[in-house]
Design brief:
Strand content of chain A: 25-35%
Strand order of the largest sheet of chain A: 9-10-13-11-12
Radius of gyration of chain A: 24 Å
CATH topology of the largest domain in chain A: BirA Bifunctional Protein, domain 2
Largest sheet of chain A: 5 strands, mixed, barrel
Largest interface: A-B, 55 and 55 residues
Oligomer: homodimer
Number of strands of chain A: 21
Distance between the termini of chain A: 20 Å
Chain lengths: 413, 413
């Protein structure tokens, strides 16, 4: 894309009320627009990143057999009353509620266990209909009291939530391990695998622990204890002597870190299937409740975490896998038509090959172009100027500043 | 996909309270789940259709230079008060509203002119920043008094809305014609081009008319007057003697039809840019308001219209372009392992070639399989049975029942 045609502009300052680094950088780069505290819209560059994250997650969910669907935001009270999550103390702070004409209360879903369990009950009757898993990407709404973490804790945010439906605990346990692997793949692929830990966290009636995926960052709100040699991490919330004994760990030998929760996986068991009547007939003809699991990743949370973890003082540093563009061609022709033509030609040739290229064809000073390029954080910057030729273009790697010399032919691969 | 693994099932009856044909068929086929009146969730088959419609619209919006983004559902009052659409009589019935802790009112967007105009104002200052257009696919919410048209009139529905930002009336007029062509392409590509008419409808302060795209259907809520020879249609709302004179038409010579509005395009002029401060400096340095247009298509409305228009007494008839799958292999082996193997092999070979195939590998009676296949409405049904061979497979075209004989090699192309 030609930067002269991209409608968004970079800006020097983020809004004064924005305290989160991720949102400051994303707003300054023209990736997102702040609607209000905790509510951000995605501008074209931001949507490109978001779609790449979505694509990676979709591939991993499909790889474990997940069937994609899309559930509604608006909720009636029926199924939520059945699970005591409509007006209980636990959730009354979280809901945004509204009303139909006539006064019926509706809620804006902050999660989707209830509607999905209810819908699935229409399609499951026999053990032959199980197991399976289904997921969606959907906006969730939470009436957060404070929303100061930028796109990492939104009042409106898109989450991928996967639900598994199994006949037995063993079947759930097996799927849970597959889901855990898929989650690890996601975090590796978006570039935070080395600083993200599968972490023991509080479970429920059905299992002692759930697992969170926690990414080390000063912007984190959680604290975890890590044993790197064994690859074990524990959320401080569940760190008791009993747990330490069970896992064979000594507290003093553990490393501590502030972390951001980027995903969680949870064995629900029959917590939702029983009250909502999601039953199946087993091989002996006996009615049994379906055994469920749920598996969530917040996409904005993940995008914000990547910015928190990988940015530097100059701006964002996107990993190639989710960068809005892979290459950033910067035309430094300064009015020299021959150089301009070389930059134009390179842009067109790379684009024709299907490479993601942003082309800074704007009539602006070199310093401004470089500052913008650093702020945007595209992995490779290609400088086209009178000082170089198509045999030896200057290619700068954003992550470490390494300067490579590559010919046009090498770039066109 | 193997039908035995698809978690949704067909059903004989739609819910009793469902009166719209589109929703009855889509629920029976397992395409959608009804959450409540006017609120439907998309099950895996429904999402496949929806994504194909979305892809077609995205291609056409990109082709006219539209930049994709994604704006929030939650709205504060500021920009809507500026345009008098927060609590005016005109819109007070439409809004769903909710509250932040502390009592601040928020609304759920029923359209996005205000937030998008406000956000764009951060990025436009000079005539050099114009013209451009930007669009998104987003859920909209309308507190409809009645919602009895299935997925055609939802309380929650996804709309693609495109906004254009121009310097002058002429620039807007020119873009408007491009948008109109893109819209015609969309309706052709989803299979309703021949029954969809660009229709004169009421305009605003800025232009005498807007244009609606109206599709002939008994399920329609609008009435239009058509002159097929000239390719002109007029919504009855604007059919006055003056309009007839202006367009050179005689009322008695016009055909009338009930229609569904599947899209609309509208010259907004400066209606939103002036109150929201979206200004630019022209070449003489003078501040001018940006001249806007808006262009909407409801995706559920469009999907429901295709069902209304193209279905028959046996079920849905999808056009190839938006069908959930192109081929439906029906295994009629009835326990014959050789036939079963032939069906399996064909499914695997077609899938390996990237063809969209649903494979009815279920252990069910032929009659049930055929009824389900007709209901689902996949364009081509391939019957694999002991009565045929891989040299002459039975291929039935869903739209007209035509029976073709094709070899396995022909199918694999």
């Amino acid at each position: 894309m030609r930067q002269s045609q991209l409608f968004t502009k970079t800006r020097r300052e983020a809004p004064k009320d924005e305290v989160a680094k991720n949102a400051q950088l994303l707003i300054r780069g023209g990736y997102v627009h702040k609607e209000m505290a905790g509510v951000y819209s995605l501008l074209p560059l931001g949507l490109r990143v978001f779609k790449k994250i979505e694509h990676i997650i979709r591939e991993e969910m499909n790889a474990i057999g997940g069937q994609e669907m899309s559930f509604s935001v608006l909720q009636d009270d029926a199924s939520w009353k059945a699970t005591e999550r409509w007006d209980s103390e636990e959730v009354s702070e979280i809901w945004f509620k509204t009303k139909l004409h006539g006064g019926t209360d509706l809620g804006l879903a902050f999660t989707h266990e209830e509607p999905i369990t209810r819908a699935v009950a229409n399609h499951v009757s026999s053990y032959k209909d199980l197991p399976f898993s289904a997921y969606h990407f959907q906006s969730k709404f939470r009436n957060e009291l404070r929303a100061k973490s930028g796109i990492m804790r939104g009042r409106e945010f898109v989450m991928k939530d996967l639900y598994s439906f199994s006949r037995t605990q063993e079947e759930l346990d097996s799927f849970y391990e597959h889901a855990a692997e898929a989650y690890e793949n996601v975090f590796k692929r978006v570039g935070i695998g080395s600083v993200t830990f599968k972490t023991f966290a509080s479970g429920g009636v059905f299992s002692k622990f759930s697992h969170e995926y926690q990414t080390i960052s000063d912007a984190g709100e959680d604290l975890i204890y890590i044993d790197r040699s064994q690859g074990i991490a524990i959320n401080e919330e569940v760190l008791t002597d009993e747990v330490l004994n069970e896992l064979g760990l000594v507290k003093d030998a553990l490393e501590t870190a502030k972390t951001i929760e980027v995903g969680n996986i949870f064995k629900l068991g029959t917590k939702f299937s029983e009250p909502l009547g999601l039953m199946y007939k087993d091989e002996a003809g006996k009615e049994q409740p379906v055994v469920m699991g749920s598996y969530g990743i917040g996409l904005g949370r993940l995008m914000g975490t990547v910015v928190e973890v990988l940015s530097d003082e100059k701006g964002i540093v996107w990993p190639e896998s989710i960068a809005p563009f892979t290459y950033h061609i910067v035309d430094l022709s300064g009015g020299d038509e021959t150089v301009k033509q070389r930059a134009d030609d390179l842009y067109q040739a790379m684009t024709a090959r299907g490479v993601d290229v942003l082309y800074d064809d704007r009539d602006a000073r070199a310093g401004e172009k470089f500052a913008d390029s650093d702020l945007l954080g595209i992995p490779y910057r290609i400088v086209v100027s009178a000082k170089n030729s198509d045999d030896a273009l200057e290619v700068v790697r954003r992550s470490n500043g390494e300067v490579l010399s590559m010919s046009r032919d090498e770039l066109l691969g």
